[in-house]
Write a structure and sequence with these properties.
Helix content: 40-55%
Shape: elongated
Length: 255
């Protein structure tokens, strides 16, 4: 799927919490910026135009010149530092943030150089310099609420209508699988941490009984759980799944 960087106001990641970036806003940026040009692809007659090419990239042959608007964000795939710096300048005009796949926020320092901020609004080097010795909790997606899980993975695409609906739906489908993997990896990491501690203490590790497509089954469990408890955290849902598997399907060892 590659590494995507977005200009976004998504309240989960952005410091500039607000509504989604509309195509009208994106088109206004393109029209007002002499360095941006509408990119008309071969399917533009059917799906419209939502992509811009940055004509002022230092390397005119670089593939890292394209930005497209869909799903309430403006996205670049595998952007280099030149394009990300341009994205920061665009984001400032939209009162938005430039955010990477892992939630990192990109900014420009006083000299115009690209830097990475953490969720405290300071550069990573500043944050990590003062991190050792301090008590801190790193939650990851385990801290996300169920309504975020449902929105990222089970959004009703029938509500996506209009000229650019096809592109929005296709983008959402790609992001959906990515987020399934992210959430499930957190769940597996949680089980792994428990097993590492049990092994160190001399206890048998937790394993499932039987065979089956646990990924799909577990994702259905999470969906049903959050349909009933949308404000619960993913951490709570994982604990509920562990209890369910212990009581209904069984572990080789008691948890």
């Amino acid at each position: 799927m590659g590494y995507d960087v977005e200009i976004t106001r998504n309240p989960l990641f952005s410091r500039k919490k607000g509504p989604q970036i509309t195509l009208d806003e994106w088109f206004a940026i393109i029209r007002a910026d002499k360095e941006l040009k509408f990119f008309v692809g071969e399917h533009a007659d059917k799906y419209g135009v939502d992509t811009a090419i940055w004509s002022a990239h230092p390397d005119p042959e670089s593939e890292s010149r394209y930005l497209w608007g869909a799903g309430g964000v403006i996205t670049a795939k595998y952007p280099d530092n030149h394009l990300m710096a341009k994205m920061v300048r665009i984001a400032r005009r939209l009162d938005a943030d430039v955010v990477g796949d892992n939630g990192e926020i990109y900014e420009l320092d006083n000299d115009g150089a690209l830097i990475v901020l953490d969720d405290h609004g300071v550069s990573s080097s500043e944050f990590h310099a003062g991190f050792m010795g301090k008590n801190a909790l790193i939650f990851g997606v385990g801290h996300n609420k169920g309504k975020d899980f449902l929105d990222r993975i089970y959004r009703d695409t029938s509500k996506m209508t209009g000229q650019h609906a096809y592109l929005e739906i296709e983008t959402y489908k790609v992001n959906t699988m990515w987020w399934k993997v992210v959430y499930y990896a957190w769940y597996q990491g949680f089980i792994t941490a428990i097993n590492e501690n049990r092994k160190a203490d001399g206890f048998p590790i937790i394993t499932y009984k039987g065979e089956g497509n646990f990924f799909d089954e577990d994702m259905i469990f999470f969906r049903n759980y959050f349909d009933k408890k949308p404000d619960a955290s993913f951490f709570r849902a994982v604990n509920a799944l562990i209890e369910f598997r212990k009581s209904k399907l069984g572990f080789y060892d008691e948890f």
